User: Which sequence fits this backbone?
C-alpha cells in the first residue's frame, strides 16, 4: 500500500457506509424476519413484515451514518498504521475487525443507554454487518491501482523529470 491520505479514509468510510446501508443491513433484516417466522412456526402477515423491515432498515441506516462519522478517526489511524503493510488480506481483516468492534461496542452502549439493557444478539448482528461492509469496501480499495504508474528501474527516458516518478503516485518495480 502507498501513503494514506484523508481521501483514502473518506473513500473507505463512504464505500463501507454504502455497502452496509444498501446490502448488509437489508440482508440482515431479511434474515432476522425469516428466523422469527421459522422459530414462531407461523408465517407473518406480509404487511407487518414489510413495515417492520422498512422501519428497521431506515433506522439502522441512520445509525450507520452516525457510526460512519464516528469511525473516521479510528479508520484514519488504522490506515496510517497499515500504510507500509503490502498485504491486501491484512488491510481487509484489520478494517473489518475494527468496524465490527466499533459497531458492537457502540450498539451495546446505545442499547444500555436507551433500553436499560444490552441485547448481545443485536450487537453481534451489527458487528457482522459492519465488518462485512468494511471488508468488501477495503478489499475493493486495496485491489484498485488508483491511477498509479508502474515504472521499472532504468526505464526512465533521458531528460524525464524523476520527481514525478518518486512521488506516491508511482509504483517502482526493481
Assistant:
Amino acid at each position: 500500500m502507498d501513503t494514506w491520505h484523508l481521501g483514502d479514509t473518506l473513500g473507505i468510510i463512504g464505500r463501507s457506509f454504502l455497502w452496509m446501508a444498501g446490502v448488509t443491513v437489508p440482508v440482515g433484516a431479511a434474515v432476522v424476519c425469516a428466523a422469527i417466522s421459522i422459530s414462531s412456526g407461523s408465517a407473518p402477515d406480509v404487511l407487518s413484515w414489510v413495515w417492520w423491515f422498512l422501519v428497521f432498515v431506515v433506522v439502522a441506516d441512520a445509525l450507520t451514518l452516525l457510526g460512519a462519522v464516528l469511525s473516521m478517526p479510528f479508520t484514519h489511524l488504522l490506515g496510517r498504521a497499515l500504510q507500509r503493510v503490502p498485504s491486501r488480506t491484512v488491510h481487509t481483516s484489520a478494517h473489518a475487525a475494527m468496524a465490527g468492534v466499533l459497531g458492537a461496542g457502540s450498539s451495546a452502549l446505545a442499547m444500555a443507554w436507551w433500553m436499560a439493557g444490552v441485547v448481545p444478539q443485536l450487537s453481534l448482528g451489527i458487528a457482522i454487518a459492519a465488518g462485512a461492509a468494511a471488508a468488501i469496501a477495503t478489499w475493493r480499495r486495496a485491489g484498485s491501482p488508483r491511477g498509479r504508474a508502474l515504472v521499472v528501474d532504468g526505464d526512465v527516458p533521458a531528460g524525464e523529470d524523476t520527481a514525478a516518478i518518486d512521488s506516491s503516485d508511482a509504483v517502482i518495480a526493481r
The mean pLDDT is 80. The beta strands are 149-152, 170-173. The chain is about 70% helix and 5% strand.
